[in-house]
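Batch 3, record 17
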Amino acid sequence: MIFYFIFILFIPNFIFADNIKQKYETNSRQILDYITSGEGSGLAYKWLSDLVDEFGSRHLGSENLERAIDYVVDGLQKDGFDSVHTEEVPNLPWWVRGDDTVEIIEPRRQKLNALAIDGSPPADITAEAVVIRDFDELKDHNITGKIVIFSEKWNGYSKTVKYRSSAKRLQNEGAVGVLVKSIAPFSLATPHTGSGATGSRIPAATITLEEAEMLYRIQSRGKRIVVRMLINSHPNGNTTSRNIIFDIKGREKPSEIVLLSGHIDSWDVGQGALDDGGGLAAVWSALHSIKRLAEKNPAFAPKRTIRGIFWTAEEQGLLGAERYFETHKNTGEKFIFVSETDQGAFKPTNWHSALQFSGTVEQMKRLDEIVSILNDYHIPLSIQQSNSQGDVQFWSDQGIPSVNYISDKGKDYYFYFHHTNADYITIFEEGDLEYTAAIFAVIAHVIADLDNWL
Ligand SMILES: *[C@@H]1O[C@H](CO)[C@@H](O)[C@H](O)[C@H]1NC(C)=O
Ligand SMILES: *[C@@H]1O[C@H](CO)[C@@H](O)[C@H](O)[C@H]1NC(C)=O
Ligand SMILES: [Zn+2]
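Prediction for the assembled complex:
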């Protein structure tokens, strides 16, 4: 404390390019204290448990999702946020999961632990299966009339997920069905669902790591494998859902927007607590904390508007965010910073934690000063350039600075649970939601206040 004081006292101001750290350190620490150990701590967990326990998973087209949206909007109004409202997102592809059975018929009978892939058509087919490790192995097999089973190697999510959307390609090569080893690094007999079969004429499902690898071994012994896919899941036309928008209105530049976001929809398995209930809870807590602090001390009232958005239909391909982008790009509002958190609202526990950043070098330097305030608070976090910004990709593509938060646990651990029946709030440990919220609250507070951000 003493050293810190001397440091501030004796280093002349002109040494700092922007003085961001010096100017915002005190307020930022107050925000961090408030959320991680003060009055704001524990609120995000309560907010999230109320949501996921009362409404459960929030699959597009389900009553759960729309009722959860009404409930969240009601809560935001009670919190006293500005401009709380929803905006409709029409023409969304609706798909309903049925009671599906995937079973080995030969060389012995066993029901597989499977989850149909979004968009899969219904079917009842029994066919010989071919197990392959990757697309290259297709050339070694005649897959006409066969069910293709992928037992691919996990190579990180972004490089492995392509197998989940292989149905249309395989259908064109003559396959009659596809089973994909779940896109995950680890399994406790948990199949992972996800998007990938919209528009396919052949049924598609994921199976567990354990069973996919077993089938590969059985085939390696020269055994013939026959599988039955009885899929009752089916596309169900279009549906409509809603994005949720809420603000803390800026006191000087209300039409300049600092956006924090996550998505409210989920798959129909588990509780959608990790993906992406935790992201919502962190965004909510960040805005809620700034609002409560501002009520006590006007220094926390943002100059620009801080906006929270909970997107719908993310899981079907960022459809809620895309709609919002299309319908808002020509309004008088100017988005000056956008962010999302959708890879686990975990507390950073080591230096693999990062803000994936897209923007100019100047903006990155400013963000780095903000991050150094967090680092001094013992939050290990770095900044990495990235072009993969999830729901806020549309703004990022327009050159608007953006951040996508990925903690160390977001890289692998997150994918243990992702899109499974194990996606329960139980995954979060003490401090996870708080630290995620605190990181975003500090970033939003400083950027909403900075004169020279853009
Ligand atoms: C369903 O949505 C698609 C894609 O958004 C659209 O092209 C189509 O016209 C819609 N169908 C109906 C019947 O509204
Ligand atoms: C592949 O299998 C199908 C069905 O058994 C057969 O009609 C076709 O000729 C085979 N193609 C090749 C290249 O062997
Ligand atoms: Zn998600």
